[in-house]
Design a protein that fits this description.
This protein is mainly alpha-helical. The protein is built from twelve helices and six strands. It is 43% helix and 10% strand. The chain starts with a helix and ends with a helix.
Length: 261
C-alpha cells in the first residue's frame, strides 16, 4: 500500500493530525551519520506532503546541537518554508536541541565531533532565526520546556517563540536521553511563566484553535495543579528504567538464572 493510500485509511478511521517528528536534520548526508536507517529526507517529505494533501495537518521540528552547522539550520527551515507555502499544512515549528547526556552517538562516541547539545546562545539564535525566516508562513514557533527547562523556554518567548510547550506527564523520549524536566509542569505554573512576561496566557487545541483566554487573574484549577507528587501519581520513567521487573531477559539467560537458583 502506498503512503497516500495508507494515510487515507488512517484518516477514514479517525486520524485528524500527525506529528512532524523524525525530521531531525533534513540533510541526507548528515542523517546517514546521526540516524542511519531512519526514514530518508525524500520519504519524510512524501509522508508530510501526502498528509497535507489529505487535509491532515502536521507539526514540524528540527533537532540541532550535534554535528550540524548554521548552514544546515537555514537549509532545513528553507525546505519547511517551501513545503508550507505549497501545502499550508504545518501547524507549528518546534526547535529541539540535542539532549546529549545519554544519547548513544555522544555517550558511546559513535560519531566524531558530536557537540554536547546546543549552547544557550545557539538555542536563542535558533528561535530568533526561525521567526525571521519562517515569518508569515509559520504563525507558531514553540519553545520546549522539556528540552530547555522552564526558565530558558520562558525567555524564548521573547526571542521569536509564541507558544510554550504544554503540560506533559512522564515524558520519556527526552528523559531517556538525559533531560531533567520531563515529568510535569502544571497548567497554573505555565500560566504564571507567561504572565511574568506581561503576556496573556491562552489554552489552545492541537490545531491552534483558542479554547480559553485567561484574562487578568481569572484562574482555573486543573486536576494537574493539585498533584503534589508527580512520580507517585503517574510513575517515574527513571525508576521504571532502573527496575529489573519489566526488563527483557533472553530465554537462555532466564534458564541460566533459574538453574543458578
Amino acid at each position: 500500500m502506498s503512503i497516500p493510500q495508507y494515510l487515507q485509511e488512517l484518516k477514514a478511521a479517525g486520524l485528524d493530525t500527525l506529528p512532524g517528528t523524525s525530521a531531525e536534520i533534513l540533510d541526507q548526508e548528515l542523517r546517514d551519520l546521526i540516524a542511519p536507517g531512519r526514514i530518508s529526507v525524500k520519504h519524510w517529505i512524501e509522508v508530510i506532503t501526502s498528509a497535507h494533501s489529505l487535509g491532515v495537518p502536521t507539526t514540524s521540528t528540527i533537532m540541532y546541537g550535534h554535528i550540524e552547522t548554521p548552514v544546515h539550520w537555514v537549509k532545513h527551515m528553507n525546505l519547511l518554508r517551501d513545503i508550507q507555502q505549497e501545502t499550508h499544512g504545518f501547524t507549528e515549528f518546534v526547535p529541539l536541541s540535542l539532549i546529549h547526556q545519554e544519547a548513544p552517538m555522544y555517550q558511546r562516541k559513535l560519531i566524531d565531533n558530536v557537540r554536547p547539545g546546543a549552547t544557550g546562545a545557539e538555542v536563542v539564535k535558533m528561535h530568533a532565526i526561525a521567526r525571521l525566516m519562517l515569518g508569515p508562513t509559520f504563525r507558531n514557533i514553540q519553545s520546549s520546556w522539556v528540552k530547555e527547562g522552564p526558565k530558558l523556554s520562558q525567555y524564548l518567548l521573547t526571542c521569536g517563540a509564541n507558544d510554550l510547550g504544554g503540560t506533559l506527564i512522564n515524558e520519556s523520549i527526552s528523559t531517556s536521553a538525559g533531560a531533567q524536566y520531563g515529568q510535569l509542569v502544571p497548567p497554573k505554573e505555565l500560566r504564571r511563566m507567561i504572565r511574568d512576561l506581561d503576556r496573556t496566557p491562552a489554552e489552545r487545541t492541537t490545531t491552534y484553535q483558542l479554547r480559553k483566554v485567561f484574562i487578568g487573574d481569572d484562574e482555573e484549577v486543573s486536576p494537574l495543579d493539585l498533584v503534589e507528587n508527580a512520580d507517585e501519581r503517574f510513575g517515574s520513567y527513571r525508576r521504571l528504567t532502573a527496575s529489573s521487573q519489566f526488563r527483557y531477559v533472553h530465554p537462555f539467560e532466564r534458564e541460566k538464572q533459574q538453574a543458578s537458583h
